């Protein structure tokens, strides 16, 4: 985790550096509103990434933001195994991300697939999500 406090960075600059960091391989980038000394409102930039990418991500932060320093912290993490399945709905196919860890399984419909079908058929997004969830549950029953 790499962090920096920014008290003089524009919103446009924050959006730009987020895109740059994600393109450079950051796992995640997020902003937290904070108060700094003299009650100045500021933004804490947090970047999560692989330790091998630390130098590149640090250079991006130092070159693309107003900060003159960053903090590091190393964390360990557990990642669920992931794979994809495709289910057929009345509106078309929807991919699901299936994540597993021991006896825990999570299935999540891919937003982009659902949004595309909702737009194509001029129906609410939640309608496609519901149809996809029903189709995935039927697959579970068949197994």
TrEMBL record:
It comes from Lactiplantibacillus garii. The keyword Iron-sulfur does not apply. The keyword NAD does not apply. It comes from the Bacteria. Pfam families: Ni_insertion (PF01969). This is DUF111 family protein. Keywords: Nickel.
């Amino acid at each position: 985790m790499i962090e920096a406090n920014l008290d003089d960075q524009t919103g446009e600059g924050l959006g730009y550096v987020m895109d740059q960091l994600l393109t450079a391989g950051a796992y995640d980038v997020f902003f937290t509103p904070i108060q700094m000394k003299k009650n100045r409102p500021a933004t804490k930039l947090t970047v999560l990434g692989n330790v091998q990418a630390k130098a590149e991500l640090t250079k991006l932060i130092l070159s693309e933001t107003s900060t003159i320093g960053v903090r590091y912290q190393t964390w360990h993490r557990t990642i669920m195994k992931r794979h994809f399945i495709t289910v057929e709905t009345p509106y078309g196919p929807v991919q699901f991300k299936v994540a597993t860890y021991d006896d825990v399984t999570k299935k999540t419909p891919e937003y982009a697939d659902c949004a595309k079908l909702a737009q194509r058929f001029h129906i609410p997004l939640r309608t496609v999500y519901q149809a996809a969830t029903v189709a995935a549950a039927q697959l579970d029953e068949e197994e």
